[in-house]
Amino acid sequence: MTALPDLVVSRTEHPKPRPRPEELGFGRYFTDHMFSWEYTAGRGWHDPQILPYGPIQLDPAAGVLHYGQAMFEGMKAFRGVDGRVRLFRLRDHCLRMQRGAPRLCMPPVDAEGLAAAVRTLVALDADWVPAGPFSALYVRPVLVATEPYLGVRPAERYRLLVILSPVTAYYGDPLQPVRIWVETEDTRAPRGGLGAVKAAANYVASLRSAQRARQHGCAQVLWLDGAEHRFVEEVGTMNLFVLLGEELVTPPLSDSILGGVTRQCVLRLARDLGLQVSERPLALDELREAHRSRRLTEVFGTGTAAVITPVGELAVGGERLVIGQGEPGRLTRWLFEEITGIQRGLRRDRYGWLTDVA
To answer: Is 191:255 a contact under the CB 8 Å cutoff?
Structure first.
C-alpha cells in the first residue's frame, strides 16, 4: 500500500500512561496521536498530518454544528498471537466511507489515502494495541463540515479526523446472549433517508428508543421498517441474522439499512459452509410464527464493535420470544470463533481480510 503523499508526522512530547487491560471498556481511552486531513472546494484534499491527540478548534458557525453534516466509520486493528498488528478489512471500511459521503453532500474521501493514513497512524501507536483475547484497537475516522456559514447549503470546507481507542468486548462477555427490545413506534431511518450511511444523525435518532429498551431490561433495539413497522431491519448498531430451520436469513440491503462489513464476512463464511443463505424481507409476524413452530433456533447481530452478538430474547411489547433457551447457538458460536480467529491469526486468512501494520 502506497504512503500518503505530503503526510507530515509530529510526534507527541508527552506520551500518555497506558490503561490496564481491565480498565479498557469501549471508547474510554485514546492513543497519543490522531490524523487530520483538510478539504476545500476547488482545491480538494490537502494538508494531511499526524499530530498529538487533543482538542480541535471549530468555529461556532461551522456547518456540522447547525446542519449536521457529519459521518464516521469504524474498524479495528488486532494484535495476533504472533505479536504482529494487523487491520481487519481496512480497504472495505475506507471504501464504505468514500461511498457514503456524497449522500450527505460531503466530498468523497480518498479511500486509498485514508487507508494509508490509518496504517501509518496505527503503526505509530502500535504499542497501544492490546493483546487480550477480546481486545482490539478501535479506529474511528470522522468527517465534519467546518466552513462557518448560516445559509442552508452544503459546506465548502471539511475536516477528516482519525482517532484510535484501545477497547475490550463491547458487551462484556462477547458470547453472553442479550435481550433485545423490538421498537414498534420510533423509526431509525425511513426509506429514502440516511440509513445506509454512517451519518451521525442516524445514531442520535436511535438514542430515545435505546433508553426505553434499557428501561425494559434490554441491551439494544430491533428496528422495524419506517413505513409499516412490519419488517425487521437492524439491531441497534448491528445487522440482523436469524436461523429459520436450515435457512439463514438477513434483511436485504436498502437505503434504510447499513451494509455492514461484518455482515459481508458472515455471508461469505456461511455460504462457503454450504448453508442456505437468504437476503430477503423478514416480517415480524414470520419471526413470531417461526418461534411458535420452533423453527426459530438462532438470532444474532453482526457489527465491527461486537463482531457477533447472540440474541437470547426478543421483547415485543408484553410478549417474550426466547431463542435457543437463552444460549448462543452452534452457528453463532462458530461464526464468532471463525471471524475472531482470523482477526487474531488463529485461523488462516483465506480471504485476504488482514492488512499488516507492524
So the answer is: yes
Angle at CA of residue 298, ends 296 and 300, nearest 5°: 130
Cα–Cα distance for residue pair 24/338, rounded to 1 Å: 24
Helix (H, G, I), strand (E, B) or coil at 240: strand
Compute the average pLDDT of residues 29-55: 98
Query: Model-level pTM?
Result: 0.95
* Sign of the dihedral through C-alpha 105, 107, 110, 113: negative
pLDDT of 155 > 60? The answer is yes
Q: What is the DSSP letter of 275?
A: -
DSSP 14-53: SPPPPPPGGG-TTT----SEEEEEEEETTTEEEEEEEEE-
Yes or no: say if 77 and 88 are a contact pair by the CB < 8 Å rule: yes
Specify burial of residue 223 (Cβ count, 10 A radius: 0-12, 13-18, 19+): buried
Place 2 in a pLDDT band, splitting at 50, 70 and 90.
low
Best CA proximity match to 45, nearest among 124, 98, 121: 98
d(CA 58, CA 63): 10
For β-strands 247-250 and 307-316, DSSP reports them as unpaired
Q: What is the DSSP string of 117-166?
A: HHHHHHHHTGGGS--STT-EEEEEEEEEE--B--SSS--SEEEEEEEEEE
Q: How far is CA 220 from CA 127, 172, 183, 213, in A?
A: 33, 14, 10, 6
